[in-house]
Amino acid sequence: MHLIQVDSVQRWMEDLKLMTDCECMCILQSKPISIEKDEQNELILSSQYSTCDNLQLLLKRAWIISTELTRIAQKLEKNRWQRVHSMTVRVNCHVRSMINEYNMFTRNSSEEMHQFEKLLIDKCSEFTAFTERCIQTEDEQILKSMKSCINETLTTVAQYFGQLIELVLTHEAQNLLRQIELSDNVYITESAISSLFSLTQEGAHLCRIIAKEGGVVALFKICRQDCFRCLYPQTLRTLASICCVEEGMHQLEKVDGILCLADILTDSTHSEATHAEAAAVIAQITSPHLTFTQHLSSFLENMEEIVTALVKLCQEASSGEVFLLASAALANITFFDTVACEMLLQLNAMKILLAACSDKQIVDTPYSRDQVVTILANMSVLDQCASEIIQGNGVQLLLEMLFERSSSGNSAEVAACERVQQKSAVTLARLSRDPEVADAAVKLSCIPRLIKLCRSPTERNNSDSVLVACLAALRRLAVMSPDGLEDSDFQQLVKPRLVDSFLLCTNMEESFV
């Protein structure tokens, strides 16, 4: 999205830096053509870019090389020798440019890195020479015998390239972490954390590198120093990104990170922004999608303090973003155990969340409503929830959520709307075991809406999970209020086995033939 929003001329100027004339680059072998007196001007020009900018340029160049190597393998498979050669020349140019660009801004690079640079350049030259010989012969036997050799060389180039990029990124992560650990200057530390955060946005692999190099340890060290309080939000945001990988979780456990997060959340002297970012870290490390859960034992020890602080943050949130982060953390926590749900009940969380939903400035997106209804669905297993729902006009809210539709058509938003519909139906089904809730649902006309969702695929965006949840809710309400359904609805949606009703509804797609 960022690239799309950038001015087209600016985008062209950025891409221009990565364009090279292959023939010229081959002849010059990437040697600078400036005379000595111009070297200072080059240094001045390069110093205009920050470490973060240089790394972004490096990563963009690396992505181009990786893409080109994949395409070479595809062309090689089809024996398109001319294309293979021209692309090999282009890769050779990009590799040399990448190494030159990196060496212009890097500091104290290791001997191992220089060795890999030389190995990669030599292997690229060998690769180019091989492909050049291929376009100079038409003998099929010779080409066939050379193909395996070229394949082997291509694999080696890719291997050396991958190892060099790994070394470069590790080296840069080490440099940034060294700055964070050794500097007591707020501005230098802020710049280093900002660059580190940019690296974490490049994917899980970079997060693993940062975690292995002690990134989580260094960042929690910042969060324990009062002199860096103004950097807490930025530091916690970076921590949340790193903790998406298992290595980050291991580091968090080693440094008692959860205790530190609990201290931040319960300290009222911290800003709302700091509390919100701490909530984001909690949401990340408690995600039900994570397969690694070793850290959860220490989380359970601090759960009461954390849950209390998060409920307070939901109640006092000044913006939709703050509420979203706090409610997302609470939603994830409710998947742990019914103890968390009981805790929320004692803290009047149900009342607070239902009240927040009536404020369109706070609960302003399907994503926020998704978090709220997740909490309601998980809490609805408790019998005491029914009275709270009735008192807070919760049944009306659940009905409104059954009408959730995306206004933008964005795929992520559409998926969030489906989750809201599904979970509101699940919550209704669970709570309707209480006659008072079932009676309220019938009076508010929940049954016609559930029937509509079952019978109309477009109303539920063709979602099977929404259909199953609506059928379950409808059957529960039909037991409590059989007069609310017409005979045809009862015969098709309630009386058969659930799987038969499901198959009937999924075959109700409109035909335009």
Task: Describe what this molecule looks like in 3D.
There is one protein chain. It is built from 29 helices and no strands. It has 513 residues and is an all-alpha fold. Among the domains are: 47-168, Nucleotidyltransferases  domain 2 (Four Helix Bundle (Hemerythrin (Met), subunit A)), CATH 1.20.120; 381-512, no CATH class. Helix 24 packs parallel to helix 27. The longest helix has 43 residues, at 140-182. The chain is flat. The model is unreliable at 1-5 and 21-49 (pLDDT under 50). It comes from Casuarius casuarius (Southern cassowary). One of its GO terms (molecular function) is cytoskeletal anchor activity. One of its GO terms (cellular component) is apical cortex. It holds the Pfam family INSC_LBD. Residues 61-513 form the Protein inscuteable homologue C-terminal domain.
In short:
By secondary structure, the chain is an all-alpha fold. The protein has helices at 2-5, 8-16, 22-28, 39-46, 51-77, 81-105, 111-135, 140-182, 186-200, 204-212, 215-222, 232-242, 246-254, 257-266, 272-285, 296-301, 303-316, 320-333, 338-346, 349-357, 366-379, 385-391, 394-401, 411-431, 435-443, 446-455, 464-480, 487-494, 498-506. Helices cover 74% and strands 0% of the residues.
